[in-house]
Amino acid sequence: MSSLPSGTVTFLFTDIEGSTKLAQNHPEAMPVLLTRHNEILNDAIQKQNGYVFQIVGDSFAVAFHSASEALNAALDAQRLLHNEAWSPAPIKVRMGIHTGAAQLTEDKSKEGKYSGYATLAVTQRIMSAGHGGQILLSQIAHDLIRDKPPAQVQFMDMGERCLKDVLRPEHLYQLMVPDLPSEFAPLNTLESFNHNLPAQLTSFIGREKEMSEIKSLIAAQRMVTLTGSGGAGKTRLSLQVGMECLDQFSGGVWFVELAPVADPLLLPQTLLSIFNLREDSHRTALEVLINSLRPKTTLLILDNCEHLIEACAQISTDLLRACPKLKILASSREALGIAGEAPYRVPSLAISNPAHLPSLEKLLDVDSIRLFIERGMTTKPDFKLTKDNAAFVAQICFRLDGIPLAIELAAARVRMLSPEQISVRLDDCFRLLTGGSRTALPRQQTLRALIDWSYSLLSEPEKTLFRRLAIFVGGWTLEAAESVCGEERAGVDILDLLTRLVDKSLVFSEESRGEIRYRRLETVRQYSREKFFETDEVETIRDRHLAFYVKYAEIAEQHMRGRRRVDWTHRLTAEQDNLRTAMEWGPARNPESALRIAASLPIFWTSGGFSAEGFRWIQQATIAYREQIDEQVQPTLRAKALIGLAFLYISFGDNLNGKRAAEESIAIYRQSQDQSGLAYALVILANPLEFLGERVQAEAALMESIAIARSKENTFVLASALSGLTRVTLVLHSDAEAAERYADEAIRASREAGMEWTAASAHEMKGNIAFYRKDYQEARALIEKAIHAYQEIGAPFNVILTKSTLAHMERELGNYAAAQDLYRETIVAFRDMGQTGAVAHQLECFGFIALTWDHPEHALQLFAAANALREKGGTPMTPDEQVYFDGQLSDVHEKMDEIQFDSIWSKGQALTMEQAIEFALESTLE
Q1: pLDDT tens digits along 122-170
Q2: Buried b / exposed e across 119-128, counting CB within 10 Å, b at 16+?
Q3: Distance (Å, rounded) from C-alpha 306 to C-alpha 329?
Q4: pLDDT for the residue numbered 443
Q5: Which residues pair with 842 in a beta bridge?
Q6: In this structure, are residues 599 and 618 in contact, taking their beta carbons and an 8 Å threshold?
Q7: Which residues contact 792 (CB under 8 A, 6 or more apart)?
Q8: Cα–Cα distance for residue pair 62/45, rounded to 1 Å
């Protein structure tokens, strides 16, 4: 034993790729193949002094004194395996190498085994990420070898990869030598799968039996619901199951956190946002969801359903009926009660009876003990299970019935209290709360007792902050907590109080893009809300919350027009739930504040594809403001709201209403002293004027806007107006040189102010100029540059608009296949964003191509479907579009008689939007 690797150990894990399938296809030959495989591996391992400490089926687990020995063994084995004349099927082995801390176990019943779960788990996951014939190394193993590698050995950098169950990304390398294969399929890491599962901050402990049972249920049933009390670990278990099932769902595994959703009516909107879909004024949210999910093999994880039980039951029923390939995994304190549901009660973690304790080694195999130790080490790195504290740790887990959240909250105390002290305090607390035996408590009451205990230990200032933080939905920042939850009197340090709550595991902190955000577990959040609503300060704190997000939205608006747009796009996305909460409270409480928020967000809503939702908020706030406030008090606020409304109308393609709202805004601004507001409103007005054919008026509006912007040194408005003037000048006057001067000035002004958005728009205009000059290569390059810029600033709506522009160019050049490929992407994206007018235009473009390929019947059906969409949505063509369309429709008329024309037109008009899109996408014409 003493000569075996221990301390810092390099491990080599191997297994045969597709061994189950091989055994099924070649049952008689498999034993012979496996015997030869074992001989090759054992021979290579022995030559490098390796120690095989475990063989399970065809999988080897091997320990080495050095990384070089492990590498040489893997290399020798792969060469022998590769050169072997396998028959009737080849044996391909994947291998993973990792170095880390591990000790030989002291348990005599496990002679030769290793403790050091983290190192062993990482090695296993590295091996599992590879393919047959591939050798993968971790960063630490690579670093130990790179200065003295074997002859002809090179390492391919595979980058940082997220491995299943491993908390932090692991940098991986692939071993490459001339005489072995070097090209393999993409690694089997989490990046390879379609999902939105959040990265976990802590390791997943145990639950092997539950995992297996739940995965079997999912394989057999359409709907599985994990039930159990708060804190039982339902959320974490569902996430782990989802991660284990990634390769089974080509349509992805999608996690929906329902805890922040207080209103059942917002459930469809929450689901839409998960799939990056948008509201549609002509389809219900449920219809949008069904249309998107129907063809896909998808697992939907609905987490924390209990407060929306009826809404979750109804939408689950509707989705499962309409989407045959969809499966749902829900978590709730009770089953949803729908047909076909398979409830699964999540048990507590395994515990050990303190009266009959096993050895330390066996205690470390008990899930609840492992959880307490690992979470305790997070708080106190040198904490470990010893002979002195083992009985008390076991007692804590036993008294807490193995409830994961309860154990985590207790483990958070090890920095200040010993396990013995924690055990005593738990005992006293439970007697106080129940007046009886601890063992008589149901699980939910036990968990509540623990949170009560944690709450009772807080100081009064900590309790006050703990309660007030319940106002936030979806997390918060320190700045928000200080503004909303701070005391009016001086001397209260919110940062200090918040840090204490984090230390006690009542709040968690996460870093994203350089900003720290705070959140808490759902059970704790619900508890804090109960405490919060028991106070007499609910209205006061909600008012502060509203006031903070008024300022936040107005500050964000300025940054969305400047060099920090990318950062603020991410911030606004993170704060959407809080902004929605503020706008829900505002109309009845303070309509002016609600309107100030709504009027500040149109740029964010539009560029992010949230136009439909933004339109609803700004209309709601405008109505409340009009009914309750004398408009003469804040006329420019109404003007700002109107221009935001116009902006949203235009994004839908509704130029008539966009023009009306912009003109009303301008009339108010002309009576005020807000010249910058007037200049921006004129820029917005120019858009519908141009698209409605009123180009002279559009040019006049832009020229006036530019004059004001120059006098006020408003770079944002100046660059925006110049970009618009570029397009108008090119179309109205056919003056490419003047248009290019305007575009160049717009780019220069944008660059100086760090406004990548307006620079991207100007590059798009320059692409149009190059196209006008027949410099098609330059046009493509500029348009693609604009697309990349829009992608960089997080403006998906602008990305799709510009790709549509590129598609139009390709179509005009006769590159119909390339154009059609782009239209296939843009029509789906416009649909998902709720842009029915844009969808209609894309259908028409598919029709134009079909007509060019001499398929008039196909083209006519698409034209009719588009016409029906436009009539339903109130989004008519622009005059230029109408002229071109009429010419195309005339060509169709010439190719068929009136009866045939009317029949096909009626058929196309009867198509739903989804049917029309499917018709356009599935047809192959040339």
Answers
A1: 999 999 999 999 999 999 999 999 878 888 889 998 888 878 767 677 8
A2: bbbbbbbbbb
A3: 14
A4: 42
A5: none
A6: yes
A7: 566, 756
A8: 8
Distance (Å, whole) CA 714 – CA 827: 36
**Tokens in use for 652?**
């839908």
Which amino acid appears at position 575 of this protein? E
Between CA 911 and CA 840 the distance in angstroms is 12
Rounded Cα gap, residues 697 and 724, in angstroms: 13
Percent of the chain with pLDDT over 90: 56
Q: Are strands 223-227 and 341-345 parallel, antiparallel or unpaired?
A: parallel
10 Å CB burial of residue 185 (0-12, 13-18, 19+) is: exposed
For residues 50 and 323, what is the distance between their CA atoms, to the nearest angstrom?
53
Mean pLDDT estimate for the chain: 88
- Residue 634 pLDDT: 79
Pair 58, 94: CB distance under 8 Å: no
Other Cβ atoms less than 10 A from the Cβ of 594: the count is 27
* Distance, CA of 203 to CA of 243 (rounded, Å): 13
Question: Comparing C-alpha atoms, which of 239, 159, 252, 158 is closest to residue 203?
Answer: 239
- The strand pairing partners of 764, in sequence order, are none
pLDDT higher than threshold 80 for residue 795:
yes
Runs of H (alpha helix) within 610-735 = 611-628, 635-652, 655-670, 675-691, 695-712, 715-733
Nearest CA to 480 among 556, 569, 587, 588?
556
Closest CA to 488 of 446, 452, 541, 412: 541
What's the one-letter identity of residue 179?
Answer: D
Question: Which neighbouring-strand residues pair with 476?
Answer: 518
Q: How many Å is the maximal CA-CA distance in the chain? A: 95
Cβ atoms of residues 809 and 828 within 8 Å? no
| pLDDT per residue as tens digits for the range 837-889 | 899 999 999 999 999 999 999 999 999 999 999 998 888 888 888 999 999 99
User: Under a CB-based contact definition with an 8 Å cutoff, are residues 100 and 125 in contact?
Assistant: no
**pLDDT at residue number 438:** 41
List, for residues 680-692, the tens digit of each pLDDT value. 999 999 999 998 9
Q: Spell out the residues 6+ positions from residue 396 whose beta carbon is closer than 8 angstroms to its own.
A: 372, 407, 410, 419, 422, 423, 426
**Reduced to 3 states, what is the DSSP secondary structure of residue 277?**
coil
Structure tokens, 684: 């917005």
Q: Which of 591, 683, 679, 605 is nearest to 637 (CA)?
A: 591
> Which pLDDT tens digit goes with each residue over 197-224?
887 667 788 888 999 999 999 999 999 9
Amino acid at 97: I
> Around Cβ 773, how many Cβ atoms within 10 Å?
13
pLDDT > 80? residue 107: no
pTM, to two decimals: 0.67
* Backbone torsion region of residue 734, taken as left when φ is above 0, otherwise alpha when ψ lies between -120 and 50, otherwise beta: left
Pairing status of strand 508-512 against strand 51-56: unpaired
First and final C-alpha spacing in the chain? 73
Q: Where are the alpha helices (DSSP H) in 441-489?
A: 443-456, 460-468, 478-485
Long-range contacts of 587-591 (CB under 8 A, 24+ apart): 587/620, 587/621, 587/623, 587/624, 588/624, 589/539, 589/542, 589/543, 589/546, 590/543, 590/546, 591/621, 591/624, 591/625, 591/627, 591/628, 591/629
Q: Which residue type is seen at 532?
A: F
Average pLDDT over residues 178-188: 88
Distance of alpha carbon 606 from alpha carbon 645, whole angstroms: 11
3-state secondary structure of 297: coil
